[in-house]
Write a structure and sequence with these properties.
Elements: E1 2-4, H1 9-20, E2 25-29, H2 32-46, E3 50-54, H3 62-72, E4 79-82, H4 97-125, E5 128-133, H5 146-165, E6 171-177, E7 181-182, H6 185-188, E8 202-203, H7 204-217, E9 221-223, H8 226-235, H9 240-251
Parallel strand pairs: 1-2, 1-4, 2-3, 4-5, 5-6, 6-9, 7-8
Helix pairs in contact: 1-2, 1-7, 3-4, 4-5
Length: 256
């Protein structure tokens, strides 16, 4: 099985869960040292083996590189976890353009590319599972993180669509939608002072376990956490302008 963004947070915890079940892994992230540490931990604890691929998945062509490496290693990827992603905080007009485009490349393009590369092989074997990590951000617009919210909406809708297309094939697609989670995400997005974190964040292990159970059950969508589920559902029945205004309020930096 292959996990992107495996060096920390939800991706790292999913690697531990799958290793616990005896799965050999392909671990993909930018930080080779962290991947080696994780691989050594899993081998010592569970006796599993890991192929480490240090790759910046926000770079064009990175998905093809990953696929080429697993092909060369003669690895059949029966489970694909598209977890890698990042956000960018601030007004869209003032955000760094290159970082905006890298965000779209990673959150949308690379995820789509990897899915398209590995899916035909799964269909040929008539078995396979794909887990795409979106966010509760997928259910609404997000001022001050406009691109991130939009990319996660793509992940959710893309996942639901191909999950429907794949019915009866032996291959399933699950979209995991966590709310705020304790990872390095908020630090990288420069939003450690956001009001959103005042209302509590889930731990990465709990979110990973929710995603794992849903994946193994073949569920198309899972929202991790009861409160997150309730918030996501409430969006469906509220005026969109109000939802957007509330989202901005939660994103804003709290007063010090």
């Amino acid at each position: 099985m292959l996990i992107t963004g495996a060096s920390f947070g939800i991706g790292q915890e999913l690697a531990r869960i799958f290793s616990r079940d005896g799965c050999n892994l392909v671990l993909v992230a930018r930080n080779a040292d962290k991947l080696r540490q994780l691989a050594a931990e899993l081998e010592k604890k569970d006796g599993t083996r890991s192929l480490i691929l240090a790759s910046d998945l926000s770079a064009p062509g990175s998905a093809a590189y990953v696929h080429d490496q697993t092909t060369r290693a003669d690895i059949d990827v029966d489970v694909l976890v598209n977890n890698a992603g990042f956000g960018q905080f601030g007004l869209f007009a003032g955000n760094d353009l290159e970082e905006c485009m890298q965000q779209i490349q990673l959150n949308v393009t690379t995820l789509t590319h990897l899915t398209r590369l590995y899916l035909p092989e799964m269909l040929e074997r008539k078995r396979g599972r794909i887990l795409n990590v979106a966010s509760t951000a997928a259910f609404q617009a997000g001022p001050l993180m406009a691109v991130y919210y939009a990319t996660k909406a793509y992940v959710l809708h893309f996942s639901e669509a191909i999950a429907n297309e794949l019915q009866g094939t032996g291959v399933t697609v699950t979209c995991l939608c966590p709310g705020p989670t304790v990872t390095e995400f908020h630090k990288r997005a420069n939003m450690l002072s956001s009001r959103m974190l005042q209302f509590g964040a889930m731990d990465a292990r709990t979110v990973a376990e929710d995603g794992y159970r849903a994946l193994m059950a073949g569920k198309p969508v899972v929202i991790s956490g009861l409160r997150n589920w309730m918030l996501a559902q409430s969006v469906r029945f509220s005026p969109r302008r109000m939802v957007t205004a509330v989202a901005r309020k939660f994103q804003e930096v709290r007063n010090r």
